[in-house]
Amino acid sequence: MYPHERSLVARMKDKPFTILGVNSDSAERYKKAIKENEITWPSFWDGGNTGGSIATQWAVSGWPTIYVLDAKGVIRYKNVRGEAMDKAVDALMKEVEPF
Amino acid sequence: MKTILSLITVLSFALPSAIAQDDAEAKIKEIIDAHQVKVDAFTKEIQAAPREDQAKIYREKYPKPDGAAEQLMEIIKANPKDPAVVDAANWIAQNVRGGDNAAIADVIVKHHLDDEKILNFVSTMGYNQSEESRQFLKTVMEKSKIKDVRGMALYSYAAQIERDEKKVDEYTTLIEQFVKEHSDLEMRGRNLADRAKGKLFAAKNLRIGSEAPEIVGKDVDGNEMKLSDYRGKVVVIDFWGDW
Fold it and tell me: Which of A65, A67, B31, B182 has the fewest CB atoms lying closer than 10 Å?
């Protein structure tokens, strides 16, 4: 997961794009994970376990769970990974920057 | 001599095809325990092994539940009315993916609908997507005299149609009913009504094409952040954990 996300973030550098995490680790583990895996994108910290309030409200039952939102905040794709995530993001970027 | 012979004849006729009740219970426990011994030994071995060998050991030595499940299934079929077979049913449902759940469901509907212990079996049937499972859950919902069991069946039935975008309205109705009638039901320490509310929220607001609901929260250092801060950007929301 991390290497793919890192390359996606690198490819979208200076573009209107972000990964926005919702993390379910303990605070220590989360901090260790961002350091070790060079995670530069922001995350909500969901209270330290998988029963956190954001994950519960969003009915997340498997990790990772992915939602891809367009620039207007509309949910356009769910649970796309790897290449499918790249394609989804590329398609939505075209809507923001058609050229 | 004649007496002995006739005694043998009588005995063999008297041998019931079903095991006597206590025996079924003891036998079920014996099978489950014996499998657990294997699992424990396996766990020990894998924990003691160097990390690079663990995957191989897992592939080669993981104690498959099939043998035990088969033995349990025989006991269930031979002693359908015995309350102990509910333990066997729960074990099979939890340990064997795609097991012969239809046959077990049949036994439960006929003989154990009012046994509180079927809660576990009912909950696993929520994950077992099939028309038979739905029928089973519907029957339990309508006929069990135990409120928690009916609640579990309702919740599991809803879980069956959760991903069917055409059934959102039916799903919504079921979950609303569940939240209203079974707000105290817990499974493995989690309140199901809270989870159900999340699912309802998801069915209503987290569909493709709907505007993502606002998230207000904090980063790990306690700084406030909001999803709407990122409007104007394409956003990949990633629920993640480092495990």
Answer: A65
Distance from CA of A30 to the nearest CA of B (A): 7
> If contacts are CB pairs under 8 Å, which of residues 36-95 in chain A contact chain B?
37, 42-46, 50-51, 53-60, 63-78, 85, 89, 92-93
For residues B178 and B200, what is the distance between their CA atoms, to the nearest angstrom?
11
C-alpha distance from A81 to closest chain B C-alpha (Å): 10
Closest A-chain CA to B200: A59
- State the amino acid at position B17 in one-letter form: S
Residue B13: pLDDT band by 50, 70, 90 thresholds? very low
Residues 6+ apart with CB under 8 A from B142: none
Nearest Cα residue to B136 out of B162, B115, B107: B107
Query: For residue B170, which of B185, B180, B160, B181 has the smallest C-alpha distance?
Result: B160
Record the pTM.
0.65
